[in-house]
Every structure is written in structure tokens, then in C-alpha cells.
Automatic annotation (TrEMBL):
Lineage, highest ranks first: Bacteria, Bacillati, Actinomycetota, Actinomycetes, Pseudonocardiales
Name assigned to this protein: HTH luxR-type domain-containing protein
Species of origin: Pseudonocardia broussonetiae
Glycosyltransferase in keyword set: no
Keyword Hydrolase among UniProt keywords: no
GO MF annotation list: DNA binding
Domain of life where this protein originates: Bacteria
Key words, A-Z: DNA-binding, Transcription, Transcription regulation
Length: 281
């Protein structure tokens, strides 16, 4: 479960990414870790297919070794014949000797401009690693970055909920409605089954009293209002997305939420129902 005191839960998606990385690249082993808040160090927390536990808990410093270089530069680093490579420092060689590592790949996982984690792939054979391995690992890292972004966004919204509840003001009820609906939107959009289940549990806990009991006028979030107002002017999903600086799929999700609340089946019905309910002009 996401702990609002400590931030997003990155360990679960990181752990699940390692088997995907191994399958996608064909490498012998994989490991990963999250970057500290100051961006200077990485702590290896997850292992998959490694020979020993020697790397678990290992701290990698920015600029040192293949991982430290990937962290410093913010781009993948691929090293063949690791122990004899001249492009990296060799302060961690003793660890890799235990793993019989010959080739090593380190791929940063970005959320926005920041590197939040590194994925490692380890090869024990002398077969050179190349562009196909880099491309496959980049796809896994990109998928993981999207999962991280969702985790960070959920944690941010839950911190808002905590703050609103501490204030004990009338306004939080409406804000809780909106956050509750946005979390549901994320749950419907994510392809991660584990995250979806956890989000539904959180939504049940966060659901404001008026949502549980129902109301005569459906509650639309601010974003749903904006989307419907734009659709009422004849704009397409792509045009609304550009106007609101979001993805077209996000606009579609907001429309689907509004349809569900208003009991409608298409855009025309939804706009008409929203007008009749006084939700839009």
C-alpha cells in the first residue's frame, strides 16, 4: 500500500520489472535499485537471476562504475568485458567478480527530468551486448517510468487528502470528491493489475460521505467540467487534449467518467444531460 508519510511505493513495480528485463534482453541476471533523494547514490534492493546475494543493499555512488556513470549522465551505459573496460571506474569490480559478470548494462529510469531508479542487466558469457539489448532494456525502463509516474501522482494526491482532512474545513468535501474520482480514473487507465487493486481499496477508504449516499445532482470534477464544456463547443478529443495540455486518452477517461455519472451512452447525450443538470452552460 502507498504510504503517504514515506512517498510512493516503488519497490513493487521495480521488483516486477526485473523478470521483464531478463526476458526482453536474454541476459543472465538483473538487479535494480532506487536513487536517494539527493540523486547522488543508488541502493540496490532487487535481484533476479543473480548467482549470489552479494549485490543486495550495495550502494553505488554517482559517477562510479557503470551504474554510477548512468546515474551521472542520465543515459544507458553498456559495457562489454567489464573487468578490462577503460570507459568506467573499477571500484566495484570485486562484487562483479563474485557474480562472474562479463557484460553489464545500466539503464536509468526517469520520472520527469530526474533519475529515480536504475535497472541492471548482467551477462556471464563473452557474447557482446549491442543495440538490440539496449533497445529492449529501454522499452522496459520506459514502461517502468510510467508506473513510477502513476505511483508519484497517487502519493501526491493522497498527501493533498491528508492536508485537507487536517484542516477540517467545509471545502475539503468537494476536493475529496475530485481526488476520489481522479484516483478512480488512474485505476481504470493503468495496465498494472496490482496497482489497480490497491487504488480501488484506497478509493473505497477515501470516498466522501456524499458519494456513498448518492445525490440528486451528479458530482463532476473540475476536469470533467472542462472537458464537457469543450466537447459542447464541438471540439474533438485531440483538440480538448491540446487545450488542457493532457493526453487524448486522458480526455477519453474524463468523458467516460462523466457518462457513467450522468447515465449516458455518447457525447451528445452527455452534453445534453450535463446542461439539464446545470453542470455546464
Amino acid at each position: 500500500m502507498i504510504d503517504t508519510a514515506t512517498g510512493p511505493d516503488l519497490g513493487r513495480p521495480l521488483r516486477h520489472a526485473l523478470p521483464r528485463l531478463q526476458r526482453a534482453t536474454g541476459l543472465d541476471g538483473a538487479m535494480a535499485g532506487t536513487v536517494t533523494q539527493d540523486g547522488r547514490r543508488l541502493v540496490v534492493t532487487q535481484l533476479h537471476g543473480m548467482l549470489t546475494e552479494t549485490m543486495r543493499g550495495f550502494v553505488v555512488t554517482r559517477g562510479m562504475g557503470a551504474g554510477g556513470k548512468a546515474l551521472q549522465l542520465g543515459r544507458p551505459i553498456l559495457v562489454n568485458d567489464y573487468l578490462h573496460a577503460t570507459t568506467i571506474s573499477h571500484v566495484y569490480d570485486h562484487k562483479l567478480v563474485e557474480e562472474r559478470t562479463h557484460g553489464l548494462l545500466a539503464v536509468p529510469v526517469h520520472v520527469g527530468r530526474d533519475v529515480r531508479a536504475l535497472l541492471y542487466g548482467s551477462a556471464r558469457t563473452t557474447q557482446p551486448l549491442g543495440e538490440r539489448t539496449l533497445d529492449a532494456s529501454a522499452r522496459v525502463a520506459a514502461a517502468l517510468a510510467r508506473e513510477f509516474a502513476v505511483e508519484y501522482e497517487v502519493a501526491r494526491r493522497l498527501r493533498i487528502v491528508d492536508e485537507l482532512r487536517r484542516r477540517e474545513e467545509p471545502r475539503p468535501v468537494a476536493a475529496l470528491h475530485e481526488i476520489h474520482e481522479e484516483l478512480l480514473s488512474i485505476a481504470r487507465a493503468t495496465s498494472d493489475d496490482g496497482l489497480r487493486d490497491r487504488l480501488h481499496v484506497l478509493c473505497d477508504r477515501l470516498r466522501p460521505p456524499s458519494v456513498r449516499g448518492g445525490s440528486a445532482v451528479p458530482h463532476l470534477t473540475g476536469r470533467e467540467h472542462q472537458v464537457l464544456a469543450a466537447v459542447a463547443l464541438g471540439r474533438t478529443n485531440a483538440e480538448v487534449a491540446e487545450q488542457l495540455a493532457v493526453m487524448p486518452t486522458t480526455v477519453k477517461t474524463y468523458l467516460q467518467n462523466a457518462m457513467r455519472k450522468l447515465g449516458t451512452r455518447n457525447r451528445t447525450e452527455t452534453v445534453r444531460a450535463a446542461r439539464e443538470a446545470g453542470q455546464i452552460d
